[in-house]
Amino acid sequence: MLYKLIFDELVAKEILIEREREIRYILSALLARGHILLEGVPGVAKTATAKAVSNLLGLEFRRVQMTPDLLPSDIIGGYIFDQKTGSFVLRKGPIFTNILLADEINRASPRTQSALLEAMQERQVTIEGNTFRLEDPFMVIATQNPIEFEGTFPLPEAQLDRFLIKVRVDYPSTKGFRDLLKKIDQIEQALNTLKPVVGREDVIKAISEASNVRVDDSILEYIVNIVENTRTHPAVRLGGSPRAGIAILRIARAWAYLEGRNYVIPDDVKAVAVPALSHRIILKPEYEIEGVSQDRVILDVLAKVPVPRP
Fold it and tell me: For 32-134, where are the alpha helices, taking DSSP H only?
C-alpha cells in the first residue's frame, strides 16, 4: 500500500520524527487531486517533510522560494528570444512539474500568488494567450509562517480556497525533540539519499482507486449538515461554501483509501473536517478578540451534528 511504503521509509526508519500526521495529509491531498497549505513556525520540518514525501513518490519535484521580487513569469515561464534561430521559444517555469513546493508563499506579491490560481484550479497555465496542460499528477504544497507579518502578503480568500486542506505543523513533543537532536546527522544524510519506493504510474493508479471509494448517502448528508452548521454558528461571519463540502468529500475518500477501506465512515469525515474547513471560515471580529479560533468552531459543529448510524 502507498501509505505503508512511505510510512515505513520515513517514520519506521525515524527519518521524519513525529510527522506521521503531516505525511498522511500530504498523501491524502495528492490522492484527492488537491493542494495543501502547511502552516507553522520556522524550523518544524515543513519543507523537509514535503520534499521527503515527494522524493519517495518518484515524481518530478521542484521548489520555489517565494520572495517579494518574484515575478509570475518566474513561476509559469515565458517566451524568450533565441538569437540563433531568430524566433521566440518557450522557457517553461518550475510550475511544469508534478509536485511544486511554494516555500513561504505569503512572501510573494499578490500578483505572483495569482499566477498559481489557474494552475491550481484548472491544471493548466496560459502564457501570452497560449494554454498548456500540466502533467498528471500535479499538486502544489505551500508553506507559510503564521506569526511573521513584516514583508508578507496575506493570501486572499480566493487563493486560500484553492487549497484542499490547510494543516498546522506543530512543535515535536519533548521526547521527539530529544530523539531529533540525537539523530540529526543521520536524518540529514538519509533525507539527501532517499530513493523512490513507488513510480508515477503507481501514484496515478492510486488516485483513480481513491476516487472510486464508496460514499453512502448518510455520509453525504453528514457532510452537508457539518458545512451548513458552520454558517449558523454564532461566532462565524462567513461559513463553508459548497466547495468546502466537496473538499471534505474528496479528502475523506482519500483518507479512507489510505486506511485500506473502499468506503467512507464518519470517522474519516471527522479526521479531515478541521484541515478542510479551517481556512474557509471567517470569524466575527468580536469572537476573534476573545480568542475563538476556526478549529474550535469546527469542533463545536462536529460535537453538535448527529453522527450517522451504521
Answer: 46-56, 73-76, 110-114, 117-122
Strands 36-39 and 139-144 come out as parallel
The mean of the pLDDT values for the chain is 91
CA distance 11 to 4: 10
How would you class 157 by CB atoms within 10 Å of its CB: exposed for 0-12, middle for 13-18, buried for 19 or more?
Answer: exposed
CA distance 84 to 105: 37
Nearest by Cα to 73 from 96, 92, 89, 100:
92
- Residue 133 makes CB contacts below 8 A (sequence gap 6+) with 123, 124
pLDDT grade for 269, boundaries at 50, 70 and 90: very high
SS3 100: strand
Torsion of CA 33, 39, 45, 48, to 10 degrees: 30
What's the pTM? Answer: 0.93
Per-residue pLDDT, averaged over 101-122, amounts to 88
* 3-class state of residue 64 by DSSP: strand
CA distance 305 to 310: 16
